[in-house]
Fold these 4 entries.
Entry 1:
Amino acid sequence: MMREWATVVAWQDGIATLHSEAKTSCNSCSARKGCGSHALNKLGPKNAHVMTIPSAEPLQPGQRIELGIRESSLLGSALLVYMTPLFGLFAVAGLFQMLFHSDLAAACGALLGGVGGFIIAKGVSSRYAGREAFQPVILSVALPPDALRVEDVS
């Protein structure tokens, strides 16, 4: 099970709104200037994710909770997102090359197949998004920020 900590932003009627920071290793790596991942991280959002998750237990803003998601569902999602466009790219490029015997046609087919693969991946992922195996679950709940636990060890 993959684990990640998140902070509660709000809780209302059994639904918790959570804020999670995405961690990257870009700050500790010395190859930042020539790294494609570092460049992509600078282009994207600022590594913050907001999500909603059902929680029967009342939560307070600022409280930390540990979320978990199955590795199999995470790997299946990654396989769908990366391999479907790649397969579409090669399949349609090969088909266009075979039909039209032109590199330009193959390049157009590759573009068409890649975009088509992204559209198919988006459609398939929206069907699986509601399944329980693809939803994060609450593993543990930390104390609220204003609570103090005192244990008598005598």
Entry 2:
Amino acid sequence: MVKPNQNDKNKFLYPRSRYYGQVKPETLVFNANLQEFSQKVSYITGLQTNGKLESDEAYEQIKILWKQLKRSKKELLIDNQPPAAS
């Protein structure tokens, strides 16, 4: 049997999508934070759906993650305006 390497496991457990927005350090960092948020929410909802986590606890965990994401956006000084069309 072929033994998967650690890199394959990480790609499966923590998939990353390509970034298509305006390339600036702060937007790249926020994109990474957003993908991490999405992955964690996916895990939490999976646990809740399978009965391993109560709905209220799942809600509270997602609420905390959301506040962290909002704080990171504010700290990175990313505005709410969409980029200008080229």
Entry 3:
Amino acid sequence: MGCQCSKLTPCCWDSQFKAAVLEVPDVENEEKSEVDNLPAFHEFTFEQLKNATSGFAVENIVSEHGEKAPNVVYKGKMQNQRRIAVKRFNRVAWPDARQFLEEAKTVGQLRHNRLVNLLGCCCEGDERLLVAEYIPNETLAKHLFHWEAQPMKWAMRLRVVLHLAQALEYCTSKGRALYHDLNAYRILFDEDSNPRLSTFGLMKNSRDGKSYSTNLAFTPPEYLRTGRVTPESVIYSFGTLLLDLLSGKHIPPSHALDLIRDRNLQSLTDSCLEGQFSENDGTELVRLASRCLQYEPRERPNPKSLVAALTPLQKETEVPSHVLMGVPHSTSVSPLTPLGEACSRRDLTAIHEILDNIGYKDDEGVTNELSFQMWTDEMQDTLNIKKKGDSAFKQKDFRTAIELYTQFIDVGTMVSPTVHARRSLSYLMSDMPQEAISDAMQAQIISPVWHIASYLQAVSLAALGMDNEAQVALKEGTTLEAEKKTSNAEQK
């Protein structure tokens, strides 16, 4: 049956739903809630996170507002190939280092497959950084408000709110009922396109004390009165997200409630959803939103009852999220290029031939600040060392190549990812995989999206017996190489 918003029964705005909601029994979750394969919370050094993000490179920024965001989030990669997201706070945030550390450790104890779990933090000098799982498939805001390929399906929207309710129920059960500024930017889609709630919002706010950065029209009324966030405030924000998913727009709650009272629900429902849900389902979701948006906090439902209300509404439960979202699955791999194929086979001879043919064209754009004195005297000597290293590399005299490339790198007047890549392969040819992985990582620090750096990491990791990590690096190299080809084609 198609959506017939104008025929929704008056029950969705009747006063009977303003009554407080009783506790309901626990709902069995089919999926395992605890996440076993994640490491324990860890304190990182600033140098580790700087290296993981290629020196906090602009190319690695994933914040919605880029460098202009007050606290910038970067993607990064540790030496074991684990992808991470690093939130770097501005220098005036969190003046109390002990408070920051205690808060991060507490949130870091949470582990759930509905959360973007916190893996660690860094607290050195004025630096305050949080480290979380890296979630690759964008935010709910992106998929809901700024979609390109297809609008989000009704079944997926219902799955989003159920996963969110389950995340809030888990957090509440662990004594973390407060969530600051719950909105569509806080929900991210993982490699399987399952929605997860960011744990960054579970951190108590820092110096400014503000719990909401969004427009005041979306702020819980009690927060406007007292300036304090409560568990009931989180439910109010959940109600605004229900409106977002129902309408496909960011509608102020007061306006939405007016539409509900006037029975003008046609204006409240996303036209892209026509025919995807029944009158009863529409009624139920509007009713649930109305309950969450009650003016009196005590009249709003709790997370447990939200889970109970949303579970029976789930549609197409057997269909994977990536299918509903129309997003390529993480297991789908692009065809391997000759370089990718050579790395997959660990064919060092073939890799050598390709690197030799490529030369230094991928070093274009790498900046090197050199004084005139260096150009006239030291620079020529340094370039001569590199040329000799290149000659040894070409002739497969890898021990000599290592010595000469090391001299070039140690001078430090020029930075070249290609030299590190060539020395990395030379180390592999000399059965020195640990040195090879270090050079491959350094090449990526210099050039964050360079596919050859990832490919060489894959071969080095395989040589170290780390086959799972090698497969991750190989896949990343394939993805980066495909993205480079697409970008080059668009520029032509």
Entry 4:
Amino acid sequence: MTLKEQRGAVEISIHSPIACWFSAMLYCFGGSILSSLMLAEPPVAFLANTTSVLLASSIWYLIFYCPHDLVYRCFSFLPIRLVVAGMKEVTRTWKITGGIAHAHSHYKSAWMIMIVVGWARGAGGGLISNFEQLVRGVWKPETNELLKMSYPVKVSLIGAVLFTMQHCTYLPMTKQQLMFFYTVFLVVTKAAMMLMQCKTSPFAPLEKALACLFFGQQPTSSKANAPYNGISSTCDPTTSGETGDAVKKRLAKKTD
């Protein structure tokens, strides 16, 4: 559904169904692909789970090609979409914990690798969004998630840090307790954002405060008539003291 709501996705589904299907698989299994690349494993390993691939492909076909868009319209109904979004956030928790456990099996005490792999598993679809857009013939490097993180990518990073700390016994709570509180936070926050139609991250005030504290105050935008680089221009009548008629006469003499 998220893919179909992207600009130009419907046209791509008509002209190139294979590209559309590949983009949908990147949306569904992007975390698995990215984490496999990080751990030097085959990125096509997700295809071994035939049931999941066939299920995702069936849903993709119904969303894009069902007559009269019946399936998409049905799941766009707000109560149903809230349930589906909540289910997705539940699976996000399992993906993060699965990625951390998978990284731990390769690197026992490398907690940074656990964080990175758990983050990739939970938000892989967003982290490889540029490659997914390239498959659809769209190239927007300014939408790189590392330049401007979306809410799912941010919350997945926070979850990866928390679950890694718990895995390394730095948090005084069990894994089940952390999974419960984290999942409840994800579901409630996502539902609130959808009901209020809020597109900004709920972490925005905290991020602004931390940015000012650790990275300095954000630079303010300069005025439109401010001199470039702080240097006054001699061609600016307001800085040279010349009137508009004097400037015109001087330019006319130069032209002659």
